[in-house]
Design the sequence.
């Protein structure tokens, strides 16, 4: 398992940031890596890439405007994301902790850890780039 921590400031108030991040049914309108979202129930949803690759996401904790936690799983990786939201004047600070374990790779720790770290960084960077673009 690999951990990735990050912190980003979004130039938007916490209410708008929270409403955007928590409105999973609208991810396709701002996330460049999501073609569609399928809501299964109040806690579970699937996201699909443009080529149909799916990821199951399960909301495990919600504290509106403060904290959001999800488990994620697809055929390559499983993990857990925690996002903390903090108002900073007219901006919102988002603090991320992401954990991931790759599936199907060799048990060689170095290769597995490198894949997990690259995956976490890529996903987190794309999410924040898209969010800032949408809200900016």
Sequence:
């Amino acid at each position: 398992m690999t951990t990735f921590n990050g912190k980003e400031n979004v130039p938007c108030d916490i209410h708008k940031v929270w409403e955007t991040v928590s409105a999973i049914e609208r991810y396709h309108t701002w996330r460049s890596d999501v073609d569609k979202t399928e809501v299964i129930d109040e806690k579970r949803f699937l996201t699909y890439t443009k080529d149909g690759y799916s990821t199951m996401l399960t909301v495990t904790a919600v504290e509106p405007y403060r904290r959001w936690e999800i488990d994620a799983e697809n055929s390559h990786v499983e993990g857990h994301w925690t996002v903390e939201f903090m108002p900073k004047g007219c901006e919102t600070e988002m603090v991320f902790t992401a954990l991931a374990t790759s599936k199907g790779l060799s048990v060689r720790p170095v290769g597995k850890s490198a894949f997990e770290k690259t995956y976490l960084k890529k996903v987190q960077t794309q999410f924040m780039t898209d969010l800032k673009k949408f809200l900016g």
